[in-house]
Structure formats: C-alpha cells, structure tokens
Amino acid sequence: MTTPASPKTQLTPKAMAETHSAAFELTRPWSAHEFSDLIESPTCFVVGDAQCFALSRIIADEAELLTIATHPDHQRQGHAKAVMDSLHSQLQTRGAVQIFLEVAAPNLGALALYESLGYLHVGRRTAYYTPTSGGEALDAIVMQRKLPI
Q1: 102 given a catalytic annotation
Q2: What CA–CA distances, in Å, run from 51 to 10, 21, 65, 115, 120?
C-alpha cells in the first residue's frame, strides 16, 4: 500500500526503480518488477513520493526497512529524514515496536542519517551486497531502533 502522492510525483514501480537506480551507486538498484512484487504484498508498504521513498515490511510487531531512496537532485534537503519520520509513525500505528535495516558499510551518509534517528548498530553481515562496479562484496551494517524512541 502506498501513501498518496501528488500527480507530478506519482509513485509507481517504474518511478521507484528510476529513483532507486539514480540513487544507488554502491549496490545493485532494484527493478520495477521487484518493486511491483513487493508492494503487492500485504505486509509491505511505501511512504513518500518519486523524489524520496521508503519501502518497509511489517510482520507481527517487527518492521524492516527494505530500502529507501532519494533522487540525487533532491538529496541533502531533509527528504529522507521526513520520509523516515513518517515511516516510523505509520509503523507504530500498525503495531510495530521495533525496526531493523541493513546498510552498506561504506554508505556514510545513510549511516549518519540512521544514527541521527536513533538507530543502533546491532550486527554486521560480511560480503552481503554485490557492488555495482564489480570487485569485492560490501559488508552490511545491521541497525535497529525501538518504536517509539
């Protein structure tokens, strides 16, 4: 289920894939087909618009941030923080008491955002992500936050 978006920033699987592809330089971006499959699931939902969105899954009282992407033209303007704040609020409404995520270890901007939102490092997945440029696989940092904080 998606939250309403204005017509000029309509959030479709194609728009999500385009934003994801533009935003993801370290790891493989997701396809429109992958987004379509995920948003069809009753456990998944999207917050945001085509400029910045977050895709999450909630099962019982535990949530997972599957991905978040901000188009490069709109980065460093507070969109990701606003989307995450909205996501946290909706997760609480849906009964989640905690949220987990994985982030590529070299993605210092994302790590800083998550830490500023109260996420804690709780683990590391070695060689978790396939880099877009080839080379060695990237580690993922596993992070967790209680809801509400």
Answers
A1: yes
A2: 9, 12, 17, 22, 27
Query: Measuring CA to CA, how many Å separate 16 from each of 1, 77, 106, 125?
Result: 14, 19, 23, 26
Cis peptide before 72 (omega within 30 of 0): no
What pLDDT, on the 0 to 100 scale, is given for residue 18?
Answer: 95
Summarised one tens digit per residue, pLDDT across range 3-28 is 444 334 579 999 999 999 999 888 88
pLDDT in tens, 41-78: 999 999 999 999 999 999 999 999 999 999 999 999 99
For the entire predicted model, the pTM comes to: 0.89
Residues belonging to the chain: 149
For residue 41, give Cα distances in angstroms to 49, 55, 82, 89, 138: 19, 11, 24, 20, 28
In whole angstroms, what is the distance from residue 32 CA to residue 101 CA?
21
Catalytic residue among 114, 119, 128, 136: 114
Q: Which of 18, 25, 62, 102 is catalytic?
A: 102
* Catalytic residue status for 114: yes
